[in-house]
Amino acid sequence: TANQMWGGRFAAGPDAIMEAINASIGFDRRMAAQDIAGSRAHAAMLAATGIVSAKDAEAMREGLLTILSEIEAGEFAFSTALEDIHMNVESRLKDLIGEPAGRLHTGRSRNDQVALDFRMWVRDQVDAAIEGVQALMKALVVQAEAGADWVMPGFTHLQTAQPVTWGHHMLAYVEMLARDLSRFRDARVRMNESPLGAAALAGTSFPIDREMTAQALGFDRPMANSLDAVSDRDFALEFLSAASICAMHLSRLAEELVIWSSAQFRFVRLSDRFSTGSSIMPQKKNPDAAELIRAKIGRIFGANVALTMVMKGLPLTYSKDMQEDKEQTFDAADSLMLALAAMTGMVSDMTANREALEGAAGSGFSTATDLADWLVRTLNMPFRDAHHVTGALVALAEGKGCDLPDLTLADMQSVHGAITEEVFGVLGVHNSVASRMSYGGTAPARVREQVARWQAVLA
Ligand code: ARG
């Protein structure tokens, strides 16, 4: 049988394969709440402008509310033949209220309807991402405050570089996440314009009030160009881009947790709640959550690339290609929210192993730069010469199988005669970090200032 929405010019219904490739109800039912909110705003506007009667609008409103509760209760019978969420809702509205249902689509098209629903869905996800990122930042600040003066090795190339503090390392991620937060917030400002009322593509001859629907749905204003309004998916791409960068940050932290929780590092102990065991090796405690967070970037960035590819060659305005915007975005959003929640749980629950951190901080000649700086400061040596002398001292210690503080003064003086006992004062890791007082440096005093700043920002 021909389609109930556009059957007028069709003699036959679609082939089963046509229906299968065309239907989106399997996934776009996730936008049911947005679809109904949009229709309610549209119905109220149609009555306010006199395009439909107040009585019809009231019937639409009640019918739409009934449908929403049916969907929420899991009692709604979704139909693939009805293709998508928009037509499923409208068809059910016709069952419920009869003739007035047919007036709801006045001055509207599925093109502006889907643009609206999807935009509102993405906007909700942006808000959820903002909350999720803030929760993780708070968990990291708690760790930073506790360990503002715990020393650990700082790495470059994953080789011991200079001692840093645990708090400083935690706050490095807080800074990254703060930029993620600002990217989500920026994207939200740009996406917060309503496409509703663009109709199919050209606007409508009915005297609709786009300001009214925009305001009712929480938008700052209606979009200014109807062709753009039904064509644009930038809002989803911006969300996916911000999500990709955020997921990349989560992946780096996850990688550090995987390394740090290993028997070789023992920098952190993950809680039982956020680790798993092995079915064969009884000693194992695996950082699966961190590994999965590390992997989620693949799906999220993949969605970003996939949607960019879908959009890149499309002529204006709507093409059915654009129906492929949703599944990828849904999956990416789900992955991001789960990754944020799991990371927040792991970070809140993990315990830093202070002794292991401090032990590792002093190994690998981590205070060699402090020694070179001392030669510059005390002996007025050019830094390049000091670098050379320190290199020789490191080679000497390495040859003796000891660390820099274990060399005797005589050892030191065999490399450079002017070195005095005072040098031993700068070879300890605590001295080292305490001396890094430059703005943004790792000194505990600096870390505490930053902790206080973030506590105020996140309060
Ligand atoms: N299900 C469609 C989508 O997701 C809705 C818009 C359909 N519009 C149209 N003219 N076929 O994009």
From TrEMBL:
EC annotation from Swiss-Prot or TrEMBL: 4.3.2.1
Catalysed reactions, semicolon-separated: 2-(N(omega)-L-arginino)succinate = fumarate + L-arginine
Residues annotated as signal peptide: none
Superkingdom, taxonomy of origin: Bacteria
Listed PROSITE patterns: FUMARATE_LYASES (PS00163)
Gene Ontology biological process terms, A to Z: L-arginine biosynthetic process via ornithine
Alphabetic keyword roster: Amino-acid biosynthesis, Arginine biosynthesis, Cytoplasm, Lyase
Presence of the UniProt keyword Cytoplasm in the record: yes
Subcellular location: Cytoplasm
Domain named Argininosuccinate lyase C-terminal: residues: 365-434
Pathway(s) it belongs to: Amino-acid biosynthesis; L-arginine biosynthesis; L-arginine from L-ornithine and carbamoyl phosphate: step 3/3
Matches recorded under Pfam families: ASL_C2, Lyase_1
Gene Ontology molecular function: any one: argininosuccinate lyase activity
GO annotations of cellular component type: cytosol
Domain Fumarate lyase N-terminal stretches: 8-302
Coarse class of the protein's main subcellular location: cytoplasm
Main enzyme class: lyase
PANTHER family assigned to the protein according to its UniProt record, in alphabetical order: ARGININOSUCCINATE LYASE
Stated family: Belongs to the lyase 1 family. Argininosuccinate lyase subfamily.
HAMAP family in alphabetical order: Arg_succ_lyase
Annotated protein name in UniProt: Argininosuccinate lyase
Species this protein is from: Primorskyibacter flagellatus
